[in-house]
Design brief:
The protein has 435 residues and is α/β, with parallel strands linked by helices. Helices cover 32% and strands 19% of the residues. A hairpin with a 2-residue loop joins strand 3 and strand 4. It binds inosinic acid.
């Protein structure tokens, strides 16, 4: 399996970072292919915890090639801070590579993100306000500024000027904001360019080289399938494609370079920001999941909305991504909840029933979930390392998911620690190789 894509199968925050970090040990290259610093993940190593927004998981392995692909939008200030933070903690960042073709988040993208959300008022998407949408919009409008532009001050100034001109009207409320000064911005970004220059690379070549040598490459997704701009709950989505297919474009490989696709899903569901969420628990049980699962955003600190696992949405994600494996995280959070509910169908206001995820926005907004009930368990799962040592109720819960979605479970998270994982038979070959 030289090419493994690891993607979010829900609305983001599924624990992709931890899963990627576990497999990264064996990989030659880990490459992120979309999103930006709207993402955030925490890796726990012993007593230390590391938070990343842009740097791919795997950077904690000394010298590991961790690339930021061309499909990512890069805030050069954020990446520089992450590099500095890691260096201060003695972490070797020499393996970090940044695509010369990745687009840059500029100060005006953040202002436009804020302004756009404020204008929408009650209809706002609940973006992370990191400038992600406006940056991808400029990329599509061919007004984007790329990482390679940081290396030529004259070109950079011209491009910033060209990008700012058409935005004058929308940026009028910020006309006096010093971050919009063309010369200051050019200077600021040029000096960030000097700092980032040693990391800037032709990233697809790194990936091709590893694949040609039959080495493992991990394509690391951000956000989740239901936040995909084409296939998610539009317009309550992010501005990129978190699905596995986007790994081809965002890392610069062909479909045949992806051999396996793992979808990461929590044993329940969470969502940040606005938008439909058919299995949401807006009640004390939802609060309990939030507390027990520590469901507060890594990037914005916002409390996440919590609910039951949604197998209709998960089966949709399995099909869209061509999942070959499921990684179920945070199973331990369900301990002590009895019975457990799993959504297997939706029903609409006029008695309509939906076995498949509805394509029409108005329907998705109105549906409620129909559940199957399974018994819960009381046992603390954190010490479990073998599937056979899980309580039978937990095994039944996993088997039900596996059968309904039609994808084998490859690993199960039973606690926040790196080793708090149960590998299933389906991924034994990887576990052995990782040992
Ligand atoms: P944006 O990506 O900042 O434009 O935000 C668009 C939507 O995606 C909002 O609902 C955000 O809460 C959501 N979102 C963006 N990144 C993440 C993430 O990493 N995890 C969960 N939700 C996210």
């Amino acid at each position: 399996m030289p090419g493994l894509a690891i993607v979010g199968a829900q609305w983001g925050d599924e624990g992709k970072g931890k899963v990627t970090d576990l497999v990264a040990e064996r990989a030659d290259v880990v490459i992120r292919f979309q999103g930006g610093n709207n993402a955030g993940h925490t890796i726990v190593r012993g007593s230390e915890s590391f938070k990343f927004h842009l740097i791919p998981s795997g950077i904690l392995y000394p010298g590991k090639t961790c690339a930021i692909g061309n499909g990512v939008v890069v805030d050069p200030k954020v990446i520089t801070e992450e590099i500095d933070g890691l260096r201060r903690r003695g972490i070797d960042v020499s393996g970090l590579k940044i695509s010369a073709n990745a687009h840059l988040i500029m100060p005006y993208h953040m202002l436009l993100d804020h302004a756009g959300e404020s204008k929408l008022g009650k209809l706002q998407i609940g973006t992370t306000r990191r400038g992600i949408g406006p940056c991808y919009a400029d990329k599509a409008a061919r007004l984007g500024i790329r990482v390679q532009d940081l290396l030529d001050e004259k070109i950079l100034r011209q491009k910033i000027y060209a990008a700012l001109e058409p935005k004058r009207q929308s940026l009028r409320p910020f006309a006096k904001d010093p971050v919009l000064d063309l010369h200051a911005m050019t200077e600021d970004y040029t000096s960030l360019g000097h700092r980032l220059e040693p990391f800037i690379t032709d990233t697809p070549r790194l990936v091709w080289d590893a694949l040609d040598r039959d080495r493992l490459v991990i394509y690391e997704g951000a956000q989740g399938t239901l936040l995909d701009i084409d296939h998610g709950t539009y317009p309550f989505v992010t501005s990129s494609n978190p699905v596995a297919g986007a790994a081809c474009v965002g890392a610069g490989v062909g479909p045949k370079d992806i051999d396996d696709v793992w979808g990461v899903a929590k044993a329940y569901t969470t969502r940040v920001g606005a938008g439909p969420f058919p299995t949401e628990l807006d009640d004390p049980l939802g609060d309990r999941l939030r507390e027990a699962g520590g469901e507060f955003g890594t990037t914005t600190g916002r409390p996440r909305r919590c609910g039951w696992i949604d197998l209709v949405a998960l089966r949709y994600a399995a099909r869209l991504n061509g999942l070959t494996g499921l990684a179920i995280t945070k199973l331990d959070v369900l301990t002590g909840i009895d019975p457990l509910q799993l959504a297997v169908r939706y029903h609409g206001p006029e008695g309509a029933s939906f076995d498949e995820f509805p394509y029409h926005q108005s329907i998705v907004h109105k549906v409620a979930a129909d559940y199957v009930e399974l018994p819960g368990w009381d046992m603390d799962l954190r010490g479990v390392r073998q599937l056979s040592d899980l309580p039978s109720e937990a095994r039944d819960y996993l088997s039900f998911i596996e059968e309904f979605v039609g994808v084998p479970v490859v690993l199960v998270g039973v606690g926040p620690g790196r080793d708090e994982v149960v590998w299933s038979g389906a991924a034994r070959h990887l576990e052995r190789a990782a040992a």
